[in-house]
Each structure stands twice: as structure tokens, then as C-alpha cells.
Amino acid sequence: MRLKPILAGLALISVPFDAPTIVPSAYAEETEKSLYDRLGGYAGVSAVVDEFAERLFHDPKIAQFFAGMGDDTRASFKQKNKNLVCAVTGGPCKVISRDAKVVHGGLGITAADFNVVAGHLKDVLVEFNVPDAEQDELFTIILTLRPAIVDRPDEDSLSKDAPAQR
Length: 166
Ligand code: HEM
Hints:
The protein is mostly helical. It is 59% helix and 0% strand. Protoporphyrin IX containing FE is lined by residues 62, 65-66, 77, 80-81, 84, 97-98, 103-104, 107, 109, 113-114, 117-118, 142, 145, 149.
């Protein structure tokens, strides 16, 4: 039979192994959007981080960590966090902060301190109407940093009530 090799040849030409899968366009759009895009791109990330950072600076439970920061350092803290969140969610930003363990090392951050900070992030995401699925995705990423940030994982008190010995 002459037909078989011809068909086989055609199949090879028309369906290369990396041919794009055809999916309904609405579905494709939804699944292909990065978390960054679904958070509202840079404007969304920037607004969330600004509000999140202000809450950290002003929360008496943890404000002592940020007390010595002047305006410029606070602005830089916000910018570094924006770039970090942008980069880890698939956005086009460069990480401009230092390694998380190096930065937080020696601060004596407790499990309770971390929970206060995570709680502020959660509250801001809710207030900015970020859907649950996107909140969960962001938290999954942020929680990977927890071991690098928390110095005293077994301490359930806030640092302000259980100051670290240095
Ligand atoms: C929730 C996860 C956290 C993320 C994603 C995060 C992220 C960051 C980033 C990007 C910086 C700037 C690093 C640099 O200057 O290069 C930073 C600095 C800092 N963070 Fe965090 N952080 C987190 C949790 C915490 C917690 C729980 C505390 C304390 C309660 C804290 C206290 C600080 C302080 C005091 C600095 C300034 C350190 C310094 O410049 O010496 N952070 N953090």
C-alpha cells in the first residue's frame, strides 16, 4: 500500500510534538493569566503593599520592629516588597531586596509576630476584594519564606512581650 507512508508523513508534518493545544479561548485566558495579572498587575500589587506596609508600621503589636525607619527607609521597604511580590507572582519585576534570611536574621521574630504580619496581609487582600483562590496562591508563596523569616518558631508570644536575647 502506498497510502500508509504518505499519511504517516503528513501526520508528522501537520502535528509536530510541540503543537499548541487547542482550548476554548475563555478557558485559556483564565488559566494562562499569571497570579500577578490576576492581582491587578503592578497597580494592584503596589496598592496592596502600600496598605499592608502602613499597617505594619502602625500596629502597636509589632511596630517596634519598624520604629527606627525614617520616611526614605519606609519607602524603600515598600518598593522592595512590591518588587518581591511582583516577581514571585510572575510579574516583570526584578527582586531588589536581600535574601530573606539575611534581612530578618537576628530580629528575633516569633511565630506570633509572623502571624500578626500574615494577618495584615490577609485583611488587606480581603479589603481589596482579591478572590480566595488568588489569596491562597499568594499565601502559598509567602509561606515558603516563613522559615527564613521566623527566628523563634516555638515562641507563641509577641516579641514585645518576650524580647529576644542577643
Ligand atoms: C510575611 C512575610 C514577609 C515578607 C515577604 C517580608 C519581606 C521583607 C522585605 C522584602 C524586606 C526588605 C529587605 C531589604 O532591605 O533588602 C523586609 C525587611 C524587613 N522586614 Fe520583613 N517580610 C516578612 C515578614 C516580616 C515579619 C514577620 C517581620 C517582623 C514582625 C518583618 C520585619 C522586617 C524588618 C524589621 C525589616 C527591615 C530589616 C532591615 O532593614 O534591617 N518582616 N521584609
